[in-house]
């Protein structure tokens, strides 16, 4: 294999002009030629649905693939709190530059400047696009779109639809996609899973997909392939991700030559319903938007057994407000998560497991909302019951579905008692390496949304995932793909009986048969659970050299055991979820090993990557900009072997500083 040279292909010129000049000079494909070019889009969440709809609208022939029964089932639907955009509706000092700065700083200075600035530039367009589609964003009394605050910022730039923003945005993108399917511009393949990338003469020319209903392997040609398959948080087993979320498509691309960047950068979300026991297979998120109006605290007394409402105000430690007065409860997710862990580890945790903290709405429910409503209604000197009743009505409109969800799961009413929360695995900042065009190191193979690494550095700010997915799909890839496809207009559709397709399908079938023929004693689920335990304990919220070395050895042993004692029930032909799961777990095991290698290599703490050896000021992350200001892009070289390539990060528009939210 030729030596890989990383070229981010960032345009020349001032940061504020790069994207504008790029769009004005990028090669184009004329409308007549677009009709003969075929594009495969794998994944139909926000990034995939928006990309497929946009490319089809432009005239390209598009095929979409999703393993769910409908694009509407993509995990994007689970996002709750909102989507960022630099519109400055609140007139509180927001701007494109401030969104750019907040995102770079929030990611602890480990993201590529040019990509992040482009994201900030197109953010306002996303809101206009979604409003035009009919997305029901929250509005104020006069009809203007409303905003709320999220962590890591001091402005209100988050647009939202109660606590179901992802669902409403996905329905907008899905509607655009369905319109193209109805016109015949897009052919959608539901219940299909991509199991390999097909390369011809070094370029991505299609995929091998498995029909999850019939078990049949299919060959599909495309002049270009777009991976829009989400993140890999389920490597930890317990996470806020949908049960089906996996790394398989991205991992197959990685083994075909696409570098995997910063795999150890995973996000721990501070606002999750705590683990209740070994029976769980999934965790449930409570939106970060709740930190707008909820105050996080623990008792000042260790191992306090009193009920939350019995603990008086003066005996409560609002530890985020105490430690970070400038940002308070709205510090970035990595900082809020570590602070919760520190309090629980020190013996101040609450609940049956003592691995939880309180998120309390009572004071804002009464003072912020209740009193404002009473004033509007002309009620003088309202009593406490009236304030609570009026406050509840407002909170229900803002967060009602989240409060209902919490009550259903825990049996406790968060209007009456504080929520209990604890950090959990959520988003993954690492992913497939891409250049400014969103192309991987395999020509013709692109990666969009959470599946790539490009925009969030070592920690993602809340409400930025939806922004990136729709930015990549609606406003970036429609331009950048022309740079590649303009040189492919003479390439005729390659028949799928080409040797490369035949060989790829054969290798895929052999791997599936190998999984089925092990005939051991242990289920795919049991291996996944054991992998997750290793990852959470040794490559989770905190990591250290000893633990990571142990984790690598344990994962290698687990992999050996997997391939010798796995038992997959059912047959190769037909519907077989156990077989689907087995393939995904096999890929997770390999990914887990690389994540630990990456974490071991990065001898610093930054964002969500917290190495216990590298901390200062009582638990703050200690970066090493001199030695680690780079993207770690790993090339697969064989069984348990990877080669590190470095993309140096240069900051010409932002002053590098230790993050300070105090």
TrEMBL record:
Q: One of this protein's Pfam families, by short name?
A: FAD_binding_2
Q: Which InterPro entries has this protein been placed in? A: FAD-dep_OxRdtase_2_FAD-bd, FAD/NAD-bd_sf, Fum_R/Succ_DH_flav-like_C_sf, Fum_Rdtase/Succ_DH_flav-like_C, SdhA/FrdA/AprA, Succ_DH/Fum_Rdt_flav_su, Succ_DH/fumarate_Rdtase_cat_sf
- What cofactor is this protein dependent on? FAD
Name the residues annotated as catalytic in the UniProt entry. 333
For whether the record's keyword set contains Ion transport, the answer is no
Give the first-level EC class, as a single word.
oxidoreductase
Q: Which PANTHER family does the UniProt record give?
A: SUCCINATE DEHYDROGENASE 2 FLAVOPROTEIN SUBUNIT, SUCCINATE DEHYDROGENASE FLAVOPROTEIN SUBUNIT
Name under which the protein is recorded: succinate dehydrogenase
Q: Which organism is it from?
A: Lacihabitans soyangensis
